Fold:
Amino acid sequence: MGRIGDLLTPDIIVAHVRDVTVEMLRARRIRAVICDLDNTLVPWRSDDIAREITGWLLGLRAEGIGVCIASNTRHTSRLERLAAQMGIFHVPGNAAKPRRRGLRIALSLLGVPPSDTAMVGDQLFTDILAGNRLGLTTILVNPLTPREFIGTKIISRTAERIVLRGPRKRAL
Ligand SMILES: [Mg+2]
Structure:
């Protein structure tokens, strides 16, 4: 598919962030994770931090793997609150993915180079594109819920289906 296609291709596809295991990260020498917020860590516009997310974060912390949220949300106070509740870093304000600036801020907060970092998210045209542009290991997850911004639902998801040329990973 060429360069644009490569930039839209995740290195790894899993069903859920919990499937991003310490073993998987270690095998690729990844020491830090930049994570999307909505429909990756919490349902869209929700404040519910599921127990499995808390457990996943604890597992990473136990191994010294840092986590930083990079979100395109406009609701920055909610972003700050959720990051504090999860005990992880966040890129202040709107990370403006697929632009690289927000992820560069995340790398500096985490103190790691791109080669040692994974980007995890549910959208090809923001999360995966931004991560690939910066040379991170990119991991696509299924959206936690079908609820999302109308533009995402209609335009981005349709284009994602064309680029991915098939279904996403089924939930395990
Ligand atoms: Mg998302």
DSSP finds seven helices and six strands in the chain. Strands lie at 12-13, 32-35, 66-69, 89-90, 117-121, 137-140. The mean pLDDT is 92. The pocket of magnesium ion is lined by residues 36, 38-40, 121-123 (CB under 6 Å).
